[in-house]
Amino acid sequence: MKTAARPSPAGPIALAAALLTALLVLVSPLSAAAHDSLIASSPEAGSTVDVLPAELTLTFSAKLIDGEGATEVVVTDATGASVTDGAATVDGAIVTQPLADPAAAGAYRVIWKIVSSDGHPTSGEFDFTVAASSAGDPTAPTTAPTTDPGDTTATASPSTATPTPEATDSSDEGSSASTWIWILSIAGVLVAAVAGVAAVALKGRGSGSEEDPEGDSDESTGR
Question: How far, in Å, are 11, 175, 209 from residue 22 at the CA level?
Answer without folding.
Answer: 17, 23, 33
